[in-house]
Write a structure and sequence with these properties.
303 residues, mainly alpha, disordered C terminus, transducer, membrane, 7tm6_olfct_rcpt, odorant binding, receptor
Length: 303
């Protein structure tokens, strides 16, 4: 059972690392440091282009409130992805030190004995399931964006007709100051927009799931320290164990500060933007005739 849980943890750890690598947010030194640095810059530029395209679409659709707010929500998500990548990029040295320190402490507690290992891994399934489900939801959203267009293209290919008579899934053609050509380049616009959506989704999934992973490591380490103090081994002295736990707790405090420094602006951004989106969604719902009639009926009944 322990080996199975350890394998599950390693799988979860690799999953988070691969997600961070895919969006250029994994800055732990390897032999591909220059490549990762360039990939981070490239991803930042791609996401900035994504934001600009959506801002253009919002501007062009300003007279159509419903479609404008749809693009406004996508713009906020894209801007959030840019903020996340930039924060990770600017604080890469801090993150390298943070990852090494926290990971070493966690691995030390994980390898201490079987009881502590079982206690640490007991909550792994819950946090890993949340990460997998969140990533799955984003994948389904991407498929929801792209599937109708892909089906239309496949249908055209089956009839030996590569048509461009479909709507771009992201901007609907409104994200550019020029007219999108209705020739073979139209397909490149489609692939380009899908790459933007995938990049933004990978960034959101990786950074958000990394927060859960780091919190899991910190909380599990604290639980392991508490378990050591309250369940001494026959060959251990209380004072020695207490000193060791206090020393580790002092090491964990800078890790906590680093986590707050990195994710504080990100969480603040989500709180503000989610409030804006919620207000806009409520306003959109109120504009619908069915909802308005329902609200009026409730008010009449209440009167």
């Amino acid at each position: 059972m322990i080996d199975k849980e350890m394998q599950e943890y390693r799988t979860y750890q690799r999953f988070i690392r691969n997600l961070l690598i895919s969006c250029g947010c994994w800055h732990v030194p390897t032999k591909f440091n220059k490549l990762k640095y360039c990939w981070s810059i490239y991803n930042i530029l791609i996401l900035i282009i994504y934001v600009l395209i959506n801002i253009t679409a919002v501007y062009k659709l300003r007279h159509n409130f419903y479609h404008m707010m749809n693009n406004f929500g996508v713009t906020i998500s894209a801007a959030g992805a840019v903020i996340k990548v930039i924060i990770f990029f600017v604080n890469r040295k801090l993150l390298i030190n943070y990852h090494r320190t926290l990971n070493n402490i966690f691995e030390e507690e994980l390898e201490r004995n079987e009881k502590i290992r079982r206690m640490i891994l007991s909550s792994l399934h819950k946090i890993s399931t949340v990460a997998y489900m969140y990533s799955l939801i984003l994948v389904l959203l991407i498929l929801g964006y792209s599937t109708p267009t892909f089906l239309f293209i496949i249908r055209g290919l089956c009839s030996f007709n590569l048509t461009t008579n479909y709507i771009l899934p992201l901007t609907k053609g409104y994200g550019y100051f020029w007219t999108v050509p209705k020739n073979f380049l139209y397909h490149f616009y489609f692939l380009f927009e899908m790459s933007l959506v995938i990049s933004s989704s990978c960034t959101a999934s990786s950074v958000d799931n990394a927060f859960g992973f780091y919190v899991y490591q910190i909380s599990s380490t604290l639980r392991a320290m508490t378990f050591r103090i309250t369940n001494l081994l026959p060959n251990e002295k209380y004072t020695d164990v207490l000193k060791a736990c206090v020393a580790k707790h002092q090491i964990l405090q800078p890790c906590r500060d680093t986590l707050e420094h990195i994710y504080g602006p990100i969480i603040f951004w989500h709180v503000i933007t989610n409030a804006l989106l919620l207000c806009s969604l409520i306003y959109q719902a109120f504009l619908q005739q069915t909802v308005r009639k329902f609200i009026n009926a409730i008010l009449i009944c209440a009167a």
